[in-house]
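Minutes, project huddle
Topic: does the predicted pose make sense with 6-sulfanyluridine-5'-phosphate bound?
PN asked that the exact inputs be recorded in the minutes so nobody has to dig through chat later. Recorded below.
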Amino acid sequence: MTTRDLALNLEKEKLVRFGTFVLKSGKVSPFYIDLRDTVSKPDLFRNMTDLLLEKIRGLDFDVVTGIPYTALPYAAVVAERLGKPLIYRRKEEKAYGLGGEIVGSFKPGDRCLVIDDLVTTGESKIETTRAFEAAGLRVCDFVVFIDRSLRAAEDLAARGYRLHSLVSLEEILDILTREGRIAPDQAEQARLFTRQLGDSQGDSPVHNPYAAKLAALMARKKTNLVLSLDATNCGDFFRLLESAAPEIAVVKVHVDILDDFDPSFPERLSSLAREGDFHILADRKFADIGNTVRLQYRGGIYRIARWADAVTVHMISGNGVLQGLFGEDEKAGPAPGIRPETGPRRETGTGRPAGSAFLLARMSTEGNYITESYTRRVVEAGRAHPRWVAGYIGHGDNREDLARFREKLPPGQLLLMPGVQLQAGKDGLGQRYMGLDEAVRGGADGVIVGRGIYGDADPAAAAKRYREIGWRALEARGGIRVPPPPSAGS
Ligand code: S5P
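Predicted holo structure (tokens), as shared on screen:
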């Protein structure tokens, strides 16, 4: 089989298609590639394996791996034909972590050939490499069926990896145009789309006005402490808050755990926040359908939208949760019993709830069910909604793991980290703590601390200690990197 045959076959089998396709990101693409079904077409599978074998002839490696799922069956056949061990990494491990136990046996220092179906940016290849390298393997070569990137080969080469591909998207477009299988303008649209995708990748700036405002407050007050004030009555709540106010950037509130909540609570809280120069984060963890979270946010007895600067949100139900919380009213059904928001909301005065969200991207609890792909989707959603998403709630197994995760977040959004105490440890209910210094040096912009402060015999002194250590660590790291919004005045 030649490259030409491969391109023609993939198009004939509808594994490379042209038309209008909505991608997971919501972008509309003029073409679509999905090589998963090649494994159930024996002739094509054999031919593609032969092409792979030809391509890798002469490369030096000890073990072979395929990235699940599409490339794994190919790797198995390649390994068998060459008499080399097959190994693979389990899919769905900790988000951006090393995680991913490797199945199969190998020796430290073994050179590993990595087979994958596609390369789009090269970034996921580098992530995979980290996991293999952390396990003691050496990765030198990647081989893929289709290179649909603009410059993955150069990017990988700059890091010392070689990329081999059976065919590039450009070649496929040329062949299919020449053979009359697609019109020249279809090919042109595909090229244009790829170029635009390339341009929008990487450093696309994400600006969230609230994140910039909070970062400015932290810098002004020299604190990155978020006090998680999980008191169960208003007396304790305000006593603790008054004593810790000078030390904190934000107070995080679970308003529904107060035994004696009444409408004076938000008023008193807001006025303390104004006087004490800190923000209010309602840790409501909204998670329902858009219409329900809208009612929960704006109504009920708490009317969170009126007094919280920001709220926490689980993205499990999809992007509708953000639309429901912060979007315009047009399409939503009537909100029974809820009058339109006309009351003053701190610093917006727009008459319509505005607000900002921190998305739960990773949790601090042991054995939580968040997977790597879920975390990615959450970060994608946050990136796609920069107006509403000020940042993420996240955690890490250790400082390195946290740093890798932080790297994936847009600089214009903040990482707030719960599960922090002076020393690493656990509570008896699944909570994991990372040490404060590690957490900040690893990439937490704000640290969320509850029992470490209010559980101390002297909460005010504890808050001061957390503030000092947290701030010192942040300065040592070079401060918060939230860039100012593009134009002043927002
Ligand atoms: O993953 C998470 C997310 C959050 S928001 N893990 C958490 O612990 N939290 C919250 O942070 C939790 O609801 C609690 O209010 C706070 C941690 O409290 P601490 O007493 O364990 O410091």
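Observations noted during the meeting:
- Residues 459-477 form the longest helix (19 residues).
- Confidence is low (pLDDT under 50) at residues 332-353.
No decisions taken; revisit at the next huddle.
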